[in-house]
Structures are given as C-alpha cells and as structure tokens.
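Posting this for the archive.
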Amino acid sequence: GEKPFYLPGIGFLLVIGTVLLVGYLSSLFFIGRIFHLFDFWLEKTPGIKLIYTLVKDFSEAMVGKKRKFTKTVLVNIYDKDVWQLGFITNEDLEQFELKNHISVYVPLSYALTGTLFFVTRDRVRLLPKISGPDAYKFAISGGVAEVED
C-alpha cells in the first residue's frame, strides 16, 4: 500500500504547543482570580469603594459587558433649537415616579464628566448610525474629532 504521510518532529511540536496552551489558559484563570480578589477588596474598602465602583461602572457602561452607551441621541434640554449629544442610559424611571421619562447622559467637552437628565421621549432624537464610542469621542473633544461612517 501507500506509505502514510510523515513529518519529522510534528509530534514534538504538538506536545510543546499543547503544554503552552494549557499553561496560557491556566495563567488566565489564575490572573482572573487575582483580579477578582483585588476587585473584591477594593469594593469592601471604605473611602475607596465609592470612587472605585463609580469608575468601574462607568467603564463597563462604555466598553464592558454591561455596555449602556449604545443608544446615541440628540437631546433638547434648554432651547428648542439647541441640541446636545448624549446617550440613553435608562428607559424605565418608575422608581423616580417618572413614567414618561428616560435618562440621558450628556458628556461634557474636554472632561470625563457629564450630566444626567431625565427627559420625555419627545425631547430625544435617536442617532442609530453613530456608534457610542464615536459619539463620546466627538462630544469630549468639543466636536473636533472625526465621526466614522
């Protein structure tokens, strides 16, 4: 019959590759556990807890698993012809006894802060073609950053 295909050293490379992969995956698990423990300590430390949880929640809202800044909007707050760039952060405000309102976060230019407004839906215009990160970059740059198509 026909001779099977043989490549010298392939078994050695497979063993080395498997060992490296198992080591990499276990280090991810180990590092993940360390980060989880560090996170737990910071959330329990008085004085640091408030700042840490605010920064953590904000960063998760922007880019993490709990992304909240996905609905980019123009919101009318002060005058009928003046619009601000913002993000819908909550569409159910019954806990504040505001059944017909939504919350919109408006970032401030040249700062990492912003203002939260409770507004009726008729004061909001959705911008579905503009991504959250692009809109945020545009807002905090004072309108000088480019918005991707």
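The chain has two domains: 10-60, 67-140. Strands lie at 72-75, 84-90, 101-107, 114-120, 124-126.
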